[in-house]
Fold this protein.
Amino acid sequence: MHRRRFFALALGVMAATCGCDRLGDSGAAPAGRLTIVVPAPRGQGWDQAARALAAILTGDGLAGAVEVSNQPGGVGAAALSAFAARGPFARDGRLLLAGMPVVAGAEIANVASVMAATTPLARLVGDWTALVVSTNSLLRTFEDFAAVLRRNPAELVVGGRLDGGSDHVLYGMIGKCLGVDVRLLDYAGYPGGAEGVEALQEGRVAALLGSARAFLPEIAAGRVRPLVVSSSERIDGIDAPTLMEREIRLEYADWCGVFGPRGMSPRDRDEAVALCDRIDASPRWQALCAANGWNRVYLSGDEFRQWIVTETRRTRGVLGELGLLSSFDTSCWGSCVGRH
C-alpha cells in the first residue's frame, strides 16, 4: 500500500497553482495532523512563532490539525536528538522549528549536527540583536566599548541569553572581528531578558546583548542606552548605528527555520519546501510577523541547506574560540574589521 504523503502537501501545491487562498476553497480535503516541535518552554524563545505558524497552517487550510510540542532543555540539543531519533516521516507530519541556538547546542553537546539530524526546509524569520548599556555607563559609544576590549578583553562582563546561545556567539564574533583573544571574553548568560536587564541595572554586567525588539520598551523609557545593532540597516526606535557602520563586517540575526525529519524522500522534501513557500507568501503570516516584530528572512530548499552548512561552520569556529567545545582545532580567521 502506498504510504501516506507528507501531510498531503501536494494539495497545497495544487491550491497555489489554482490561485486559491485556502485549500478548502479548492474543494480538496485539508491535510492531516501535523506536529511542530519547538526546543523552548511555552512562551519563551521561538515558541510564539511556532504557535503563530500553527495558526496559519490551520487558518489557511494547509493542515487539518496542528499541535505544538515544547521540548526545552539546554540550547536545544535534547530536542534535536529526540527529533532525529524518531527516524524518517512515516505517518503524521513532524516539523522542527529551530534556529541558531540549536545549531550551537548540537556542536556543544557533540551530537549529530542539524544537517545530519534533519532535512533543512526553509529559514523563516530573524530577530536582530542590540548591545545596550545602563544610562549612567561610561561607555558612551560602541567605539568606547571596542577600545576597552582591545585593551583588555577580560575587563568587561557582557551579559545575554544562555551560554552558548545566539548572544554568546555574537559576542564571540564581535571579539573576533575586533582582533582580540576571544578566549578571554567574559560572558554571563541569563535564562530571560528580565534577568539580564536586572544584572545590567545592578552593575553585575557592563553591557547586555539581546533582542533589539525586546529592548524597545527599555530604550523608550530611558532605562538602557543602545550602542550598536546587528542588522544591516538601522532599526526604527533605536538610535544606534549598525556594526557595519562601525566597520565591523558582521550582520547577525537570531533566526529560526523549519526542518523536516532526516531521510525524507526528494518528493516529500520538495512538497514540504512548497508548503513553506506558501506560508511565507501568506498575508496572515506576513501580518503576524509585522505585529510581532519578526523580520522575514526567507530562504528555502537548496539555498537554505547550503546556508546552514556555512552557518554551522562559522558557529562552530566561534564556539571553539570561546572554549565551549570539547575538542577544537584552533585556526586564525583573521580580522573582519574594515581597513582603509
In short: The chain has two domains: 6-126+253-318, 127-252. The longest helix spans residues 301-321.
